[in-house]
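User: Can you predict the 3D structure for this chain?
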Amino acid sequence: MASEVPTQTPSCRSTSRPASPTRRWIWRALLGFALAWMAAHFITLGSPKWGPGARHDATIFGQMIAIAVFPILLLIAVGTRSPLRGGLIAGAVCLIAALAVVLSP
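Assistant: Here is the predicted structure, written as structure tokens:
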């Protein structure tokens, strides 16, 4: 009787290559940059409505806050251990800033 030799069929994992770590980091950095920039932009847009009395002073104050928030959000979005968690935090801040601009009188 002839012995049966199992044939190896390629699995789905071996045929599809996962994304390289460099490519994933680049996408995380681009997503983090976009979310941080949008949050800073919405903070600057909404600052005349939320800030002190004079419109010019409120705009300058909003720009100072946006300059402080931008690198912090970028580091949070890119530097967390879980890519999803960092993106969610930056996205939530961006959404809150956008809603504050839209809903403020």
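The mean pLDDT is 84. DSSP finds four helices and no strands in the chain.
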